[in-house]
Every structure is written in structure tokens, then in C-alpha cells.
Structure prediction request, 167 residues.
Amino acid sequence: MRCGPLCRFLWLWPYLSCVEAVPIRKVQDDTKTLIKTIVARINDISHTQSVSSKQRVAGLDFIPGLQPVLSLSKMDQTLAIYQQILTSLHSRNVVQISNDLENLRDLLHLLASSKSCPLPPARGLETFESLGGVLEASLYSTEVVALSRLQAALQDMLRRLDLSPGC
Prediction:
């Protein structure tokens, strides 16, 4: 007996009919929980408490500070930059945080697609290759400043998620 596409579809129908879409409220709650987890991980790294997120450090201006109004695409862009910086540090302290940022970006993409506004691919730092010397000369300072500013940015994102940010 030959089974065509209709036959295969009918065979899969019981499985497909049980699949439910994830409620957007759950995705938003998971996003907030992951942000809180990342902030807790940063707090667990003791040396990040020594620098204010607002303090300017010469040569580290490429690390983003707080953005005035964060849309979902700006949040994704900011997280992409932090992820690029943390990945380049090669520090044991930031490996899990970098992985968490990737997961957080995926959740932001889900939130954006639920609003019918797919996020454009995030651009990293264009001049990142030229910063290699700065990173090598000051790995510790870069890590401390990046984590401090990331923590402030994440706390701001957490507040803004309650306001249902736009695309």
C-alpha cells in the first residue's frame, strides 16, 4: 500500500493536535527569571562590586552604558555587544554568564516574534578587532567594568519588560 502526503499527515495529526503554543506570559516570566539569575551570577563574582557602572574608565568606552529607551531590538543589540566582550575575555568567571546572555537573546527574539516584529541580526562591535591590545593589557579591568555595566543594563531591562517594550 502506498501512503501519500495525506496519509502521513493523518498519521501525525494526533501528535500535532496536542502541541500547544507557549503562552507569551510564560516567555516574559522566563526572561525576567533569567535576567535575575544573571544578575545573581554577577553579584557572586566578588570583584565586580568595586566599580560603579557610571564610572568612566579610560580606554574602555566601547563597553556600553545605560541606554535611555530600550526597545527589544536595542536590548538584543546591547546583549550581543556584552556577549562579544565577555567571550573575548576568556575568563572562567564569565563563561556561564555569556551562555546565559545567548539564552536571554533567544527569549527576546521569542518576545519580539510574538509582537510580529522579528529582530534584525544584532551587530557586534565593528571595531572589536582593533581593541585586542586594550583587552590584553587590561583583562581584569575590562571584566570588572563590563560586568558592572551589564548588571546595570540588565536591571534596567528587567524594569522595562514590565512596561511591554516596543520593537
User: Anything to note?
Assistant: DSSP finds six helices and no strands in the chain. The domain at 23-163 is CATH 1.20.1250.10 (Growth Hormone; Chain: A;).
